[in-house]
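Much of our argument rests on the idea that a fold can be written as discrete symbols. In the encoding step, the backbone of a single protein was reduced to a row of integers, each denoting a local shape. We regard such an encoding as a compact summary of how the chain folds. The record that follows shows the chain in one-letter code together with its fold in token form:
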Amino acid sequence: MARVVPSQIVAFIDQNLSELQSGRLIVTHASVAGLTAIAHLIDELPTELLTISGRDYSDLVHAVETIRNSVAFWQHNASRDIGIANIGGKNILQILRQALARCPDQSPSPATVELAFIADGVLRDSVRLDISTATSALHNGEWKAATVLAGAAAEALLLWAVTKSPGLSSLAQKPQGPPEKWHLGDYIAVAMSLNLIKNNTKELANLAKDFRNLIHPGRAQRLDEVCDRATALTALAAVECIVRDLS
């Protein structure tokens, strides 16, 4: 089944029902299919993408149920035109459009690890989104995407960890240049030296590092290797172990 996102429904409203967003909405032979489609699409929205709350969420639910009830009434009354009352003085299509426009098209799955140890909300959400997307890619059989995104999440976590470590400045041996310019292998080695991760985590992370590099066609051809379910599982396991150790 295709994944439905909020911007898709907003675009549908603008492209197919723009003239119905002002005044009082009416269920007719011309509008009923579009209204039914909107309710159906909203039903298919992943729960994690409905980030609105309070009055916005209540109004969205009210508007969707109003569409359903009005369409059902229209169907049982010889398909006569049925007017739909505004909610709070607003056309219900306006309410739906405004509410959905506030929702993101991407958000981490609720099952994704919280990463509460990262205080920076923007970074935390970005890494969680990578982990969530990598997990979804694994379930969809998208091995390369899962491997690469999990590797990116591992790199972001280790960069955060080493830069936050008070022992970094006194470390005897470390890569040249600022940490932001280092490579994943550097982060793994430094994190190990600072006792931020365990040895088995280091081994998995090094495997994830090698697998992530298979995104480069030349390397994949030279090593006669490709991303597959095993590389994806290994990369995600590395991320889980890094999260465990940093927690």
Notes: Residues 6-101 form one domain.
